[in-house]
Amino acid sequence: MKTAIYHGNKTMTVEDVPGPVIEQPTDAIVDIEYAGVCGSDLWTYRGQGAQAPCRIGHEFVGIVREVGADVSSVKPGDWVMVPFRWSDGTCEYCRRGLETSCVHGGFWSREIPWAGQAEAARIPYADGTLVKAYDDGHRPDDAVIPSLLTLTDVFTTGYHAAVSAGVGDGDTVIVVGDGAVGLSAIMAAKLLGAARVINAGSTHEERHALARTFGADDIISTRGEDAVADIRSLTDGAMASRVLECVGSAQSFSTAIDMAAPGGTVGYVGLPHGVSIDAKRLFFSNIRIAGGMSPAHHYIADLVPSVLSGSINPGFVYNRTYTLDQIGQAYDDMDNRRVIKPLIRLV
Amino acid sequence: MKTAIYHGNKTMTVEDVPGPVIEQPTDAIVDIEYAGVCGSDLWTYRGQGAQAPCRIGHEFVGIVREVGADVSSVKPGDWVMVPFRWSDGTCEYCRRGLETSCVHGGFWSREIPWAGQAEAARIPYADGTLVKAYDDGHRPDDAVIPSLLTLTDVFTTGYHAAVSAGVGDGDTVIVVGDGAVGLSAIMAAKLLGAARVINAGSTHEERHALARTFGADDIISTRGEDAVADIRSLTDGAMASRVLECVGSAQSFSTAIDMAAPGGTVGYVGLPHGVSIDAKRLFFSNIRIAGGMSPAHHYIADLVPSVLSGSINPGFVYNRTYTLDQIGQAYDDMDNRRVIKPLIRLV
């Protein structure tokens, strides 16, 4: 089978490797139909993530080819979503909906070589990991597949920011960041009842349009202190009780804290890079920090109906489609912000 | 009237100054009966708080002597508790129970000279600030007055840690710190339904006894990595979903984070001194940070019945009583940990 391999120095290749086989009775083999390129893949591409050489990619969907003897929830032929971490589905953390902390869980291309930007993968703990779009396992319409693909990571990550910040009916919500996670957070905030969503730090015209499509009521292009001043002006000094930090840089995190009203919560999901929070900045105003790595698996089942009904279309974040052989171009385009998020099509 | 004055270099004096008068129609004058010495007074005493020379003290109770024309909730002769910040009682933040962020609020001995370790004080926004023990304003029994005094700061601060961490029925709770706030947090956690409270970082035998009285089920004397290892052992590796940080130092905060189970919350109320939180340490386990400066006023009314009925006795944190003239001795004893928390008696 073919797989993408990252070699460091922003160099991607596509190579032939032996395909996956069932190793444990709880495994499944999935033939991958579509994969996304994630912001955290980009950190790796830029030399700040996994050690090269490595396979790469962790948001993917496809068809079950084969299952181990102990797998009962999926069967060959089922169309499935694969969250960005696998999980056993039975441990204490899985049971309480924090599958990212599963005691047997792991990351694609870390504990095992299999990853999403490839033709197939071995799935550990298939019953705890895979999620079907339909109970009978049938394949959804092509039109909604990109949106279902977002549930494996990017949309459920934005959604986790909104849930962690406690977004509810009538709230004013600030979303910091204009990447695919930020756009997802805008849509998630609206889905959770936000009355007004302000997107901060959006500097590209093309992204403004998408932010509006996703539900942003106001967009500000400034960053740092200027952005805080703009939010103060837009909210008549009230700032917002729900701020969603969707970048992960020191500046964006700091800006998010400054935008929070006293008693408010910063819901953050951008993988923090060099983010150090001075607790004294939180103390006097009782600002909360909540979020982290999204338990995507926990949210998927709740969100599938909204996608299948067409009431949300988070798949719009994939604004260009590539073949697996074009993977190098996909990363280069994303790295240079010529594309918001690449979709890799394998069928 | 007499007031304590802090001069820097751990020097306290008691001096005669002009007494308070009504300046605004919303003011009241309170003759102070009892005052506490707070951990944050100790930061000042050690040169890391307010600028000397200054009056000092912010947890106090007493009798209303006089009220301004617009004051309607208290009258001369009423026995009242005075929270560690004043608040107008009408702004958006007061209405939502975050009186510490009141738009007209302030700290004793900062925006105005009046403070708690003195014979009297002028109280701005008396209607929004003062809380009676009884609706008719009568004086409670001497036996419960120290416990009512704790509601002005120390107990409601420990309570805020527990509320912020989401302590509820059946929880295992770790309290980091053996000061008066930590002891209060132990009692607060039990009041909120905790099944098991582990007190970490308690190094004094005398404090162990008090921690047990306040509700601690287990006590560990270690700090830092050793304490984390002890908690791992005591909880069979589960750690705790509710960790209450009641110190405010970099080490105690770091230890508290390490003691939190995935998905857990560190409720913190220790005024942070040099605490910098690496967001990446929170990210992968979805650890939340919540808390800050306690809205004491918000909690007092709810807690008064438990104190008056004797079901909680947080006043035990005051384990030595001093006259105002002995204020220097009180600070010196607290600074050298010869006393947990001094009670200043003015009647």
UniProtKB/TrEMBL annotation, chains A, B:
SMART domains: PKS_ER. Signal peptide: none annotated. GO terms for molecular function: oxidoreductase activity; zinc ion binding. InterPro entries: ADH-like_C, ADH-like_N, ADH_Zn_CS, ER, GroES-like_sf, NAD(P)-bd_dom_sf. This is IMP dehydrogenase. The keyword Metal-binding applies. Residues 8-344 form the Enoyl reductase (ER) domain. Coiled coil: none annotated. SUPFAM superfamilies: GroES-like (SSF50129), NAD(P)-binding Rossmann-fold domains (SSF51735). Keywords: Metal-binding, Oxidoreductase, Zinc. Belongs to the zinc-containing alcohol dehydrogenase family. It comes from the Bacteria. Its cofactor is Zn(2+). It comes from Pseudoscardovia radai.
